[in-house]
Amino acid sequence: MSLPLRFWRTLGSIRATVALCFLLTLDLALGYVSLRANLGVFVPLGDVGLFDWLRTYGVYNPAATAWFFGLLALLAALAANTFACTTERVLQILATGSWKRDWVVRFAPHIMHYAVLLILTGYVCSYLFSTSLPGRGLRAGESLQLPGGGVVTFLGFAPEAYRGERLAAFDGYVLHANARLRLDAAAESREAALDFNRPVRFGGYGLYLNDFGPRKAKGGMRRGDFIRITLRRDPSAPVYLAGLALFAVGLGLYLLGRGMKKANHPCTPHA
Amino acid sequence: MRASMNEVRHIAELSALLFGLGAAAAFAGRRGVAAARMLLVLATACGAAYLGARYWRAWPMTPMFLGAAGLPPVLGALGLAALRRQDGAQRLFVLRGVLLLGFAVGALAAVFPKDFYLPFIKTISPFAHALLAFGLLGRAALFLCGIHAAAALAAPGAGEDAQRRAFSWLARGFAFWTLSLFGGELWCYAGWGTPVVWEDASIITAMATWFFYVGLIHLHLTRSWSAPARAAMAVAGVGLILVLNCGPDLGPFHPPFSW
Fold this sequence. Notes:
- Helix content of chain A is 50%, strand content 21%.
- Chain A has eight helices and ten strands.
- Chain A starts with a helix and ends in a 13-residue tail after the last helix.
- Chain B has 259 residues and is mainly α.
């Protein structure tokens, strides 16, 4: 066996897969303890991006972030292992023509494996290339200029409040803020409602509601109405969302095709 | 009429007590086994009432920290479904396992309750509900995987069938756990626009458990470890879930059945 082929097979070894998975479990368990104790070190990761975070918070808090560096290394190794393992098996299946029978069963695990690669790629790109402008506060009537052009104006709320006694502490409090925004750009001008879990897309950015006030519902627009929003531009989000969808399809096909009984792993043990 | 959180909590305490009585009955001969099955039904119904009460209070938000307290009724329901398709010694083993684990988790959740937090508004999301519901189903199915694996270890003669059933529950549990993680992921994207919300450390432990079971599934499918070693890992998975995924949902000590 030639050296490159031996390297390729070792890279895609199922034993390596198992070892990496158990090491990831250990690393993440340690990470949980570290994260609980050093939350402030990790929270900025979503805003400053992976590279900047690694060379600032990451490097200057080695005891707290060592597990995270380990996580990156282990995930990189797992990605390489998954790619080698599943690609070799797919090529084997295609070469033998055996996929014409039971193609669902044969390809479903590989769909999941490639989906994992897609998810990991999307995550890394998201943390490397996304732009975040956190914590922009707007009072009713105020506007915000987006970096690439376009203006967001906060008009007021169309709130929906909690009514009832099940949670007495919530009675009268706003559940859906429905912050009304006017979005003006050269090409378009429209209104949109912003709420928790319901971002607004505008000018290439996602607008996310972080907070709003007042929390207790009262009729009409008032001078004290405010929202705090985060603007995020993340071109990689469709990549990892597609990965999640693909994994779900692969999992569904696998459970459907095999009935979870005659399972045969797609990767033959090499090493 | 509005019940206080203390009154609602007593339903969970009663459920844990019934699981415990059932576990004791399951070790008390043939008559005891019949009583144990009945107690399992009652404990599950009680736990389901508690789960329903927590949901009713929090709706449309998602109730907080139910990872441990909400698990016994789901485990009981899946356990009852598993028992219908089994007979003989393995059935008794599974019955005892479900009752013992239901009691262990229920008693921990009763003694260390974490039900005093108000839900937060961002949990009004179908993804947040999916995160909780699939997470509970995943935990329960993986517990059943561990129980069947323990049965395979305890009775080597009947090990083949128990191993097969353990894998079946492993596949289901993994699927549920994956859907739970995906629910959390989509919630992060819709609510914060990021792949991971670092403020909530429980995402880390959920991922740790997911990777453990990815490894275990690969071991089962390739049979690269011996059957007893694989079964031992499946049993260890129960401990892992208890520590990593139920532990963070436990609160400070509170004497049960107190007002």
